[in-house]
Design a protein that fits this description.
Helix content is about 30%, strand content about 25%. It is of the alpha/beta class. It has a single domain, classed as 5-stranded Propeller (L-arginine/glycine Amidinotransferase, Chain A), CATH 3.75.10.10. Residues about 1-5 have low confidence and may be disordered. The chain has a four-stranded mixed sheet.
Length: about 325
């Protein structure tokens, strides 16, 4: 493993947020708008929501849609900037701190390596971290020589990163694992990298980790017991061997942790959802748990975590 300064780190998702950022679904992703409305309804009661739309006309239409869903304007700020898709977790900023300053890293985004089709645009999305940095008056560090999506990064807020090898190998072919680790550890200050291996062949993200494993504190990794895959089983064993406490979760762990809440994916079965909510309440005893029907987002290949991008409150 490569090691860098212990002062450098990526804040954990459960640390205080300044806001959550989202990109409103355009016409090709309009089926996800009801789920977006429900996510916004949850988040805005706890922290500001910053919402990007491509044009003023799209902003007006989005506001009308939220109005019909009786989603209030409380804690909601609009921005007009050209965007290509709704998956801001992946094309958005990664925030890094040295315990004194907080800044943004802008890694290259190429629409998931073209896995959803070469015709999917991404040039605008690749510029969004720069735009958000400008809005926040925050320094933006350029990393355009390496393709990286935040949905494939799970940090414990200290020294450990978990991610899927298949995804990184697909996006940056030809690099040895040690070369990937050198890039990641230098950028994020991690001293331990745990790799998951394998993915569903129909998963265009090539196995983003946020559908498999999530930290709930610095020493506890929740690993899905959902697909019954070797990826899940092997990662659980690898994490335990690395000294982490491993908890299995019989649902999709693609949730968002925010200021006093968790917005999690429903399974579609009332009894199962009740069991998932009870487990989340035990994992996050100081947060309100919301089970959100995000099935339209799941059908499009992601989850609640994939369409949100949390901004840490401070360094």
């Amino acid at each position: 493993m490569s090691t860098s300064s212990p002062a450098l780190r990526v804040p954990a998702e459960w640390e205080p947020h300044a806001a959550t950022w989202m990109q409103w679904p355009g016409r090709w992703e309009s089926e996800m708008r009801p789920a977006f409305a429900e996510i916004i309804r949850v988040v805005q009661d706890y922290e500001p929501v910053h919402l990007l739309t491509s044009t003023a006309a799209e902003q007006e239409a989005a506001q009308e849609f939220l109005d019909t869903r009786e989603v209030p304007t409380t804690n909601l700020t609009w921005y007009v900037v050209p965007i290509d898709n709704s998956w801001l977790r992946d094309n958005g900023p990664i925030y890094v701190t040295d315990s004194t300053k907080l800044w943004i890293q802008n890694w290259r985004f190429d629409a998931w390596g073209g896995n959803f089709g070469d015709e999917i645009p991404y040039i605008n999305d690749n510029e969004i971290p720069i735009y958000i940095g400008q809005q926040l008056g925050m320094r933006v560090e350029d990393h355009q020589d390496y393709v990286l999506e935040k949905g494939n990064l799970e940090f414990n807020g200290a020294d450990t990163l978990v991610l899927n090898w298949d995804c990184q190998d697909d996006r940056n072919p030809g690099l040895e694992q040690a070369e990937h680790e050198a890039i990641l550890s230098a950028a994020f200050g991690v001293s331990q990298i745990i790799w998951a291996y394998g993915h569903d062949p129909e998963d265009g993200t090539t196995g983003h980790i946020d559908g498999t494993a999530r930290f709930v504190d610095s020493q506890t990794l929740v690993v899905a017991d959902y697909w019954g895959s070797a990826t899940e089983e092997d990662l659980a064993a690898e994490a335990a061997e690395a000294g982490l406490t491993v908890v299995r979760y019989p649902g999709d762990p693609n949730w968002l942790v925010g200021n006093g809440f968790v917005a999690a994916m429903t399974d579609g079965d009332r009894n199962t959802d009740a069991q998932l909510k009870a487990q989340l309440e035990s994992l996050f005893p100081d947060r309100d748990i919301y089970m959100v029907d995000a099935s339209a987002i799941a059908e499009a290949g992601g989850g609640i975590h994939c369409v949100t991008n949390d901004q840490p409150a401070s360094a």
